[in-house]
Amino acid sequence: MVAQTRAGGTSSPRKLKFHEKLVGKGLSTDTLLKKLKNLHTELAELDQDLVDVTSLALARKELIHTTILLHKDRGVKAYAACCLADLLRLYAPDAPYTHNELRDIFQFFFRQLSTGLKGSDSSYYNEYFHLLESLSTVKSVVLVCDLPNAEELMVDIFRDFFNLVRHDLAKKIEIFMADILVALIDECQVLPSDALETVMAQFMDKNLGMDNSAYRLAVQVCNSTADKLQRHVCQYFTDIIVQHSADEEFNDIRNAHNLIKQINRSCPALLHNVIPQLEEELRVEDVQLRSLATQVLGEMFADKGGADLVRKYPTTWNVWLLRKNDKSPAVRLTLVEAAKGLIANLPEQRESVEEAMQAKLLDPDEKVRAAVCKLYSQLDYEAALHHVSQQQLRNVAGRSLDKKNSVRVEALNSIGKLYSLAYPEIENGDPAAVQQFAWIPESLLHMSASTQEVKAAVEPVLAEYVFPLPSTSSKGDVDEVAWTDKLLTTMKFLDEKAINTLLGTSSIKATRPTGYERFIDCCVENNGGIIDENEDEIVRKLKFVTQKLAATFPDPQKASDDLNAFAKLNEGRLYKLLKTCMDPQTDLKTLIKSSNEFMRRIEQSSPGIHATLATFLRKASFRLINQSSIPTLVKRLQRGDPAGDGYGTSQAQLSANNAQAVLTTVSKHCPALYKPHVGELTKAIADEKNPRLVELCLQALAAVAKWDERLAPTDKRTAERVMRFVLDSNHRHAKFSARLLAKSKNSDETCAEVVNTISDELPDVDPEKLVAHIAVLVELSLMAPDAFEQKSETIMSFLLKQILIEPSLPDPDDMNNEIEWVDNDDLTPTMRAKILSLKVCRNRCLAHASSDSALDIATPFLKMFITLLEFGGSLKADSEDDPKVRTRMRLQAAVSLLRLAAIEKYASFVSNNFVLLAITMQDPCYQVRIEFLRKFMSIATTQKLPAHFNVIPFLTVHDPEADVKTMAKAYVSYVFRTAPPSSRVNTFEIIFVRFLHLLAHHPDFSLAQESLVDMAKYIDFYLELISSADNISLLYHISGKIKTVRDSESHGYSENLYALSELAQHIIQTRAHAHSWALQSYPGKIKLFSDILRPLPNPEAANEILKRVYLPHETMDWLKEQAKSARAAAAAENKPKPERKPAAKRKAAVPRTNGHAKRARASTRRNKYDDASSEDDEESSATDGSSDEAEERDGAQEPKSATSSADEEEPGEERPRRGARTKAKAKIKQQASRKSAKAK
User: Fold this and answer.
1) Does residue 513 have a cis bond before it (omega within 30 degrees)?
2) pTM score, whole prediction
3) d(CA 703, CA 725)
């Protein structure tokens, strides 16, 4: 048997000092218990390799005396069991007892465990824990396998353990049990059938899942002993089928097949010999058995591990697929139903599955084909629940991406109606309803990111079926609690991306005043066209706002006409109703009443504009989250998470988590909703036993006080509590309390007091409190700069010398030293302190941006941020800081520079180091890239960044992660499409020269063919998103004009720029020809940027540059081939196509039946929301990480353009490399150093 050993060194063996008698007359229970305690204590301390086992003889003999083993006192037996376990450890590997004695001992062991180990509060819990731990670690339990009655003992052990583990014991106990059972299975020659039956029974439990302790134990044991159990499991199923098939007891056979499915989901290795058996069932004559095998294998192939199953059993897969020609309609139907899931879950077998489905779609009866497509819209709840697979419904949802609007509407209405029918059962927690229908809102939200047309179709379905406004009672009342709970319940089944999209569809993320509010104001001023003063200005404003709003509708022209028609109505009552719906102070009851009246009046007066105004009202009003939601959200947070730790998987805990997400969004974007509830929020922060509730309510109070300082709490008790939070060690509480304090009464004095206190405490506080103090300084340095400046020298000196400059070496005990990123919740106090210190530096710059000393204060910090980027997150070139710290530091430095670049006084300094900053978009760490992009989009949307910063998203073209590029495409497409024409020129078209300049300075640039091909992809990506028939001549003119100037830094960069100029001109010519765009001479004059370009010294130099070809011959040949291929593709596209048959048309539909285009497989490295398709990623890209939203977005996340799906990455396409920090790191440092010196 296996035993634990310890290094013995050269010490002499220790003898047992205990020599007292344990058996004898007159020995009281208390005395015996005391002796056993002493014996156990001494035995537990003895080392196996350093003990004189002869000294254990007396104790060994007396411990198995019947007076002890059968003693009536539980404590005596518990300590005796521990002593016996210790003896087995010390004697290992030889057992000091006979077989009969061992049998009695092990029966005694498990009798004690089964009767005594009930929970941590049970008597002698520690002794039972010690016994179980000893059996697990020493593996003395394997002696059972050598005993005469081993089979009986093993069956009892298995039953006892699976009964015992259901008592919600500690995780360690569960692990010990698994170790013991695994050891028994590994050691035994033949596993008793009753023991296997006990294990299999765990997979038939109604409450399957990893929260079921018995199921967890069974999964762990089976996965650990799969090789040993394969033969036994196969025999188990064979016996069931053989026994019952003759009697046609198909219920038992069906249960056995269901058990196979359950095992396959968690322990597929057990079925190595069972799968061939199922394959044989596919060939039997009995229809029911054949149908069962077809169903089971189909569902197994459709499971997550189905691809592995196909690869391991190709013959079984082929035989199963041949069931498409089965003579029985029932079997064929079973295969078709299972195949719905295979299309999405078996991408490697997609062609064969599609071929099988094509055969069934080619049925000669057209009505049958049509009935299959329309079936789901006609199903009631029960039919959809019991007779349709979840994947079939997902395929219906996928048709929402069909090119035909009628198909999109049919598919969306189908799944929307089914969810509406199922919601009452989902709310009641019916597992079947949750599994079958709860995914529908998430799918709808993901699909809304595909195109503007799909988004326009999804939003009314969400409003009508998923989140409808509640109906009023006969008394006119509205159940606000149930309405809010429906939102939270639905959010339980959404991933992070879908939640962000959902919150984006509400109006709470819109910047105030929104475009809708401005439109109503313009309508009022326009007065139906009867204007007394400033007519031209008022008409111009109305036209401008109408165009901006119309651009967000699927049909901008119709939307513009309808909005103008509404303005001409000039009905004051309609304006008042709309303003009421858009007012954040409107409660739910008033919102419903006003909405209904508004739509009724529109229907009566102008039915032609009803659809557009319904969309307008839906986007503009607070119909998803209302001020009436706040009390329920706070209560759900308080009741669902009384401990305030944010952990747990109960339904109440999930509701609390979702309430947190909603409240956080409201605090960030629309604190006006809190106005009627300030008293309730103030009361909630007194519940200090719930830190999460306190945190969110502090955040809400800080937000509403910032919105209106008059709403800040003024009572003395609250002020004292807030002051205590500010100086406490919880950095989240301290952060929001500092914000609230800065907007409260007498803020100057209190903030100065806080700063003085923190300044004095900084050198001596513990790490947690240090983080909290720095978090306060982050807020006060921005919101109370005068108070901060009183101690700024002391504070900044400490932060720089004791925090930022202090090295952060990797933890030698950390096994994950190579990992570059940790989530926010896992940040160490040291890492958090460094990040917050950088934010203090940034906020100090922002606070003094309008002062005369702004540059004097900011320059050291700006240089520090540049240094961090230059040295990869460290302040020293040869630093050996922890990679996790460095990634965070360079991300924070890059984001800080973005924020400061929006300030006019700092923009020049940041722009001088723009290349180094922009290349952060190609950081080796995925999280740095995605977060940098999100922050860029947020800052660019809400603040005035210099126009040339808009080239940053175009650097994502070579990103190895599809979601980064997709997010960038969505942002650029939306902003460019909705921007006024004059703004487009300055923000996206003229900066083409900036983009080429950036590429010329890119560390990966060279005149090698491989590098130039990569550069061509950058230019292609830019042109794909920006170029059109209207601006192609301008872009061509810009690229050509570059050869009339030189780079401001060096001749080498000038030659790079000239090569890119030629490359861009060739690519533009190819694109213009492919799209049949006229490439005419640009009539206007373009002034290039003097900060990066200089005029040539003389005309001779200009002529020489214009005549010279800077591109290598190899590249010129490659460009010619590309142009030839583009012309051939354009000719093929313009060639008349033969009319296709209906069946072929079904097969060739661009959106797959799962709703996504076929694409190459991305890297497996993802966040918890990265499993979704790139279409879904675009939806959240427009708002993720943003602190505010542009008014044009109206709080909604904008999808990519309708044409972008044609640019999806196809399988087999070469995935380009991203080497910005791998090829020329030294070059970056050199460049940054030169620019820093120049700035000085």
Assistant:
1) yes
2) 0.63
3) 16
